[in-house]
Amino acid sequence: MFFISNAYAQAPADAMGLGSNLTSFLPLVLMFVVMYFLMIRPQQKRAKEQRAMMDALAKGDEVVTSGGMLGRVVKVVDAYVTIEVASGTEIMVQKSSITTLLPKGTLKAL
User: Fold this and answer.
1) Backbone phi, then psi, for 80, in 5-degree steps?
2) Which residues cross the membrane (predicted)?
3) Sign of the C-alpha dihedral, residues 65, 69, 70, 74?
4) Do 95 and 77 fall within a single domain?
5) Stronger pLDDT, 10 or 47, i.e. the higher one
């Protein structure tokens, strides 16, 4: 009898035990909230700005493609844009390959 200690039952923190379940999931929920504000939301904002820029492309705009080519927009079709990269040299690229819209007069300064 001296080697065995008495075992007493522990009462739960609350009647249903929901408090411990909620506190165990709180770090996981907090991690998803932080990930949303630091990663997902800025990426969605950037994609929205890119779509607005592609929809606003017009003849005469100066642009940079994803390949690094600079040129002036000559013609805009549904999914394609014709860009003049040198006098008399025109290339056709997809709208999605245009990364930056340059201010007017940038090409003359180069």
Assistant:
1) -125, 155
2) 22-40
3) negative
4) yes
5) 47
The residue behind tokens 């035990």 is 17
- 57/91 Cα distance (integer angstroms): 16
pLDDT tens-place string over residues 19-42:
667 778 888 999 999 999 999 999
Cα–Cα distance, 68 to 23 (Å, whole number): 51
pLDDT tops 90 at residue 64: yes
18 CB-side CA count, 13 A: 2
Residues 30, 69 within the same domain: no
* Rounded CA separation 52/54 (Å): 5
Structure tokens at 54: 């592609």
Contact, 81 vs 71, CB < 8 A? no
CB-based burial of residue 107 (10 Å sphere; 0-12 exposed, 13-18 middle, 19+ buried)?
middle
